[in-house]
Amino acid sequence: MKRPQVREEIVRAAEVAAEERGYEIVEVEITKKQPTRVIITVFRKEGVNIDDCAEISRAVNESIDDDLIQGQYTLEVQSPGLDRPIRTKDDYRRNLGNKVEVRLYKKMDDKKDFIGILTDYGDDTVDIREESGETVTFDSKSISLMRQVIEF
After folding, report:
1. 130: Cβ–Cβ under 8 A, 6 or more apart, which residues?
2. Could you tell me the domains of the chain?
3. How far is CA 151 from the centre of its chain?
4. Using one digit for the tens of pLDDT, what is the confidence trace for 23-68?
5. pTM (2 decimals)?
6. Could you give the dihedral angle defined by the CA atoms of residues 7, 32, 42 and 4, in that order, rounded to the nearest 10 degrees?
7. Distances in Å between the alpha carbon of 135 and those of 41, 96, 116, 151?
8. Count of other CB atoms within 10 angstroms of residue 128
């Protein structure tokens, strides 16, 4: 089976296993180096724990064909991590209402770094509400990094 078809099969198995348990797939990465590593990143608003990862891993392992991946491989299931950059529309959706840090390529209003609540996003823009209550709109292409702010 060709690599794109292998990936499709693995993604399909991961989506079924995750969705049956109330999770969504953030990313599926398959390394080219031997032994192959299949890394599945899952998300759930309530959080992801080690037992959940193990359960999803077992379900995916059982549902993919033994001969789907040639040679040995390892299967890893993980959470996105607290400091994962927010890049995709799904990432924006998952982080609506969360406090985020925005770093720009170039200064806007004399600064490059902003912190606020992610309130909206579109095809070309992202809005945050700063602590002052002011809404700041960024051109998506001007953002070099956005990630959730973790407060302890």
Report:
1. 114, 115, 116, 136
2. 3-78 (3.30.300.70), 89-148 (2.30.30.180)
3. 20
4. 999 999 998 888 889 999 999 988 899 999 999 999 999 888 767 7
5. 0.75
6. -10
7. 32, 14, 9, 21
8. 22
